[in-house]
Amino acid sequence: MITSEADIVYILCSLGISKGDVCISHTALSRFGYVINGPRDYIDAFDTVLGTDGTHAMSSSSNSLCHPDSWTSISLNNSDIEKITKSQKQFDPLRTPVSNRGIVPSYFISLPNTYRSPHPIKSIAASGSEAEYICSEHNLTEPEGLSSPLHKIYLLQGKCCLMGVDFTSASILHLAESLSSVDYLTQNLFSFLYNDSYVRLTKYPINSAHFNRVLSDTQLASLITTYTYHLTQCVAFPVKPFIDRLVAILNGNPSFLL
Q: What is this structure's pTM?
């Protein structure tokens, strides 16, 4: 499968994305086969569709700045932890690498007109007319709740695009968990490096492994637009009504996403 910028533009238009929109996207570029110009085609396609009045945002999280006592991917002894904490470097929006988000966000943050919010582990990158507002501040201890970039995208009545990935990649759904104050947000807390010390989170989600459950609710499902490119499914949904409905579900059933 060969994919061009024009193909991605067609997909976005088919999903109802249009000029002036605020859109947060998530993608696995490999699902689109050989993309002729790689991540450049993906970003340029959004720029083309959204226009100069639109805004494109992506997650640019950097989990390497978490305190190593919370790391589970490798086994660490006390000496390892001490070495890591002495060597971790402060968050730099221009230089701190993106973790586990694929090639596109890493390319995105390298562009001259991209802003990046100042959260050491849960930053959001954005470009366009609302980018500076979205990235200008970021709640340190509740990074996906009030005063977060995700909340600002919600207030701007933005859209979310899932390009070749499912709802487990939709970080915007964590906003609903935070707004509904589900109890489990306080059960998985850890610290991260900030200004030469470690700050502890007050709310943080367990994971997003069951986010595809949103498809089981008819009201949420009715808000979703889908387009299949060859065998790759792409979806879009309006953030505010989607989050509002999900908050209502979580208020009645706090374990809905677990």
A: 0.95
Distance, CA of 81 to CA of 72 (rounded, Å): 12
Buried b / exposed e over 105-135, threshold 16 CB at 10 Å, is bbbbbeeeebbbbebbbbbbbbbbebbebbb
Which is nearest to 152 in space by CA: 240, 217, 82, 220?
240
> Quick check: helix, strand or coil at residue 82?
helix
pLDDT at 98: 94
Q: Is the dihedral of CA 94, 95, 99, 105 positive or negative?
A: positive
Cβ–Cβ under 8 Å, residues 234 and 228: yes
Give pLDDT tens digits for 156-188: 999 999 999 999 999 999 999 999 989 999 987
Distance CA 119, CA 125 (A): 11
* Cα distance between residue 121 and residue 11, in whole Å: 31
Tokens representing residue 40 in the block: 């450049």
Beta carbons of 3 and 37 less than 8 angstroms apart: no
229, two tokens: 């490119």
Question: Which tokens hold the place of 17?
Answer: 């994305």
Q: Collapse the DSSP code of 171 into the 3-class scheme (helix H, G, I; strand E, B; otherwise coil) and give the result.
A: coil
The answer to whether the CB of 13 falls within 8 A of the CB of 42 is no
